[in-house]
Amino acid sequence: MPWYWISFIVIVIVSFIKFLILRKGFLKSLSSRHYLLSESSTSIDSKIIFVTWIYFFTLLIVTIAAGLGLYAYFL
Amino acid sequence: MSENSLHEKESVIVSLSDHWSVLMPTFVFFFLAMTFLSLLCYSAFSLKNVNEFLGAVILLISFIGIFLSIHFFFLYLVAWRLSDLVITTSRIINLDVLPFIRNDSLIVDLHQINEIKKLRHGFSQNIFNYGTLLLLVFGGTKEIKLLNIKYPSKVASFLEAYKNGLFNGCTPQEIKARYESDEKFM
């Protein structure tokens, strides 16, 4: 496998791992907030979860675009 | 119960997130970074016929840059949404959160507040009605800074009224309704 595809796969894997860690960070911050304010789930939860989904789909689209870009470059 | 979580008879009156204009540098930086990286991608394709290896390296660097820009953009977006100023029936809680990096909470007892200063500096703060509140507590030597507060006059007037006992005997719901409806707090 050429080096550019290996680099690309590494970037994508690292990005998605970063996404998962960050998502955990978002949820952890949310739960610490709920504890601090003695509140159960609020509208902020759904907004944050919505943002994480947008983040996920943005990553997915960028990954596909980057893959296509690399493919076009080395075609 | 931790001293940080709400007391038994304490309830939240109002929760204010930082003003949206705080996000403007993030949006501008994201837009500029994406524009620059897209141009870098384009230049990599132009370089292909001259130096294929250099073009490929530039292409990969621009992909790394795009992934990093997206990461920081969403990080600051969520940090903005999670950072709030919460006023309860007995305390002010200022949450300053950046997931995995910063998780600060500043807690000030409402009855400890001695002096409140409202600052609105600059064109954008005066146009969009946000600013800084400086709180001086009894026995404290340093002012407590609450940055990027929406409607600082409203919050300052409310805190002043609360300090002067205007809401004594009111239920949290009544105080909340009064805060939301009272025009003089604007």
Describe this structure in words.
The complex is a heterodimer of chains A (75) and B (186). Chain A is mainly α. Chain A has one domain. Chain A has 2 helices and no strands. Chain A has helices at residues 3-36, 43-74. The longest helix of chain A is centred in the N-terminal third of the chain and has 34 residues, at 3-36. Chain A is elongated and about 55 Å long. Chain B has a single domain, classed as Roll (PH-domain like). Chain B is built from 5 helices and 7 strands; from the N terminus they run βααββββαββαα. In chain B, the strands form 2 sheets. Chain B has a 4-stranded antiparallel β-sheet with strand order 1-2-3-4. A 3-stranded antiparallel β-sheet of chain B has the order 5-6-7. In chain B, strand 2 and strand 3 (91-98) form a beta hairpin. The radius of gyration of chain B is 23 Å and the shape is elongated. Chain A binds chain B through residues 4, 7-8, 11, 14-15, 18-19, 21-22, 25-26, 28-30, 32-33, 35-39, 44, 47-48, 51-52, 54-55, 58-59, 62, 66, 69-70, 72-74, and chain B through 2, 4-6, 12, 15, 41, 44-45, 48, 55-56, 59-60, 63-64, 66-67, 70-71, 74-75, 77-78, 81-82, 84, 86, 93, 95, 97, 99-100, 103, 105.
